[in-house]
Amino acid sequence: MSRRIGWALLAIALAALGLLLPHFWLFVAVEVVVFALYAVSFNVLLGYGGMLSFGHAAFFGVGAYALALLVTKGALAVPLALGLAPLAAALAAAGIGYLSVRLTGIYFAMLTFAFQMLLYTVALKASWLTGGDDGITGLRASGLLAGPRPWYFAAVALVALALWCLHGVVASPFGYVLRALRANPVRTQSLGVNVRAHQWATFVLTGAFAGLAGALFALSTGSVFPAWLNWTASATPIVMAVLGGIRAFAGPVVGAAVYVLLETVVTGYTEYWPLVMGTIIVALVVLLPDGLMSLRDRGARR
Amino acid sequence: MSFLGDLLAQHLGWMNNPTVVARQALAGLSNGMLLFLIAAGLSLIFGVSRVINFAHGALFMLGAYLAATVVRAASPEPWAFPLALAAATVGMFVVGALVEVGLLRRIYRADHAFQLLLTFGLVLVLGDVVKLLWGREDHSVAMPDLLSGSARLVTVTFPVYRLFLIGIALAVALGLWLLLHRTRWGILIRAATLDRQMLNALGVNVNALYTGVFALGAALAGLAGALAAPIVAVGPGLHVQVIIDAFVVVVIGGMGSVSGALAGALLVGLANAFGLLAFPALAVVVTFAVMAVVLIVRPWGLFGTPE
User: Fold this and answer.
1) Is A114–B124 a contact, with Cβ atoms under 8 angstroms apart?
2) What's the structural domain count of chain B?
3) Which of B111, B125, B296 is nearest residue A275 as measured by Cβ atoms?
4) Domain range for B195
């Protein structure tokens, strides 16, 4: 019962924020939920499946570019493009994942990195299609979604739906197989589970949701840039997931919120945001390797 | 047919000009040897501790800045540049040792994600530290007079500094080979690359080995940075491309293999030099495609050994 009240309170709080926040903070709030989805999609791979992808930005970027190209070159309506962008990301993830899940550990990370850099250089060099370094700008949601406030509600609702789906996946028997093959792939294989097929399916699924996050962010900022596909962009969801804690489903959500809010505040005071973030990252992995959520658990245990 | 002929003439016309080919080959060779110095350290560190040191490019950059400062302070003395090389090498050796003992050592047992994040965090920190210490503008380092001329080989003139770079890097490669194959410490490094647990069980002080290898790799990166300083713009973005190139080299050559790093560095150096001449847009894409293919077919690289 208390759980239901909690959800109701959260929904009321989100609605109140949507009605009360000034436009700038509405934009920040959308960034928080979009990156929460991106980080959770990454963490289903890492925290549940034990797969460290260092190329997750590839799918965020493919989703963003797919949306931008469908809207600008394909003249598609925004909602339709928003539906197709995750499919494009899933397609990319199917190809990359098929080749990548055959490797494990750090080699898996490096191969996903290589593919992401491949896509990054294509986005950078194929300027006839992608606008090169200048990216694609001038994207805008129209009709019902136009304006910061309707867009906030649309983005929050879509991300909530997506997170609900992802939670359904990790809570399903499929999700438990995923945990099993993280803990002991050989044993899981010997129980008759097709390990690679499960890893591949997870890779494609999380790629699709990262693509949705990318498409939402493209609409939110009105633009797409090749830097979204660069290797440093693949570190962002890792930072968020580790910051919040990779052993809890909601960990990356907390991590994304802290990261985005911190970035917004710190960049207002100093241009040395990388220095601040880098120091936090170094301190975090050395001192608090289980993430912020572990503080709550530690408190609860007492 | 004539379309293809035109295309080839447009992209490969320079092949008829032996001077251009020779010059490009030398540029590729010297860039490749510089890349080798960086990649060798990256590879050794990965081989022993299984950590991908993303901060390796930042150590290279720090070496270049340190060299710029020393050269400015000590010029016009003739020993300014040798002193800069030594300062960058020793300085990064110390920084490397401190990073390993103070930070990395604590998280060897943790998930790969944590090691990746730690070195990534260091990239962010060091990238801003150089801005704070040296400003945002590019610094240039004067080439030592002795090396600033050009030499004539048969019909082509080469900058002497490029030849000097190749010579130094070859000497370092030889030194590394002797270290790895003729000293007890080198044998331990190679043993650790093959089986760390066994080495530990045999009673070897693995901690000291990890620190030593990390510091050695950092020193090589610092030396490479100082050597590169006279031929690049020493600025805050210097580390970005370097780490990606070095990473590609190490993956192609084989993680943990120094000869692999040499082969990979020459391959990437020459491919960049000629690829950029022939197909500028495609060259970078091809680099990562090659890296992906190597990982798919031989994840342990061309010269590495499978786990």
Assistant:
1) no
2) 1
3) B125
4) 18-238
pLDDT for B8-38, tens place per residue?
Answer: 666 777 777 778 888 888 888 999 999 999 9
Cβ within 8 Å, pair B124-A102: no
Please indicate if any CB of chain A lies within 8 Å of the CB of B289: yes
What digits encode the pLDDT tens for the residues B76-111? 788 899 999 999 999 999 999 999 999 998 888 888
Residue B77: burial class (beta carbons within 10 Å; 0-12, 13-18, 19+): exposed
Closest residue in A to B130 (Cα–Cα): A275
Q: Which two tokens stand for residue B133?
A: 């210490």
Contacts for B270-278: CB closer than 8 Å, 24+ residues apart: B270/B25, B270/B28, B270/B29, B270/B32, B271/B28, B272/B28, B272/B31, B272/B245, B273/B24, B273/B25, B273/B27, B273/B28, B273/B31, B274/B24, B274/B25, B274/B28, B277/B14, B277/B20, B277/B24, B278/B11, B278/B12, B278/B14
Amino acid making up residue A110:
M
* CA B159 from centre of chain: 21
Q: Is residue B143 within 8 Å of residue B240, measured between CB atoms?
A: no
- B223 inside domain: yes
pTM as predicted? 0.91
Domain assignment of residue B278, yes or no = no
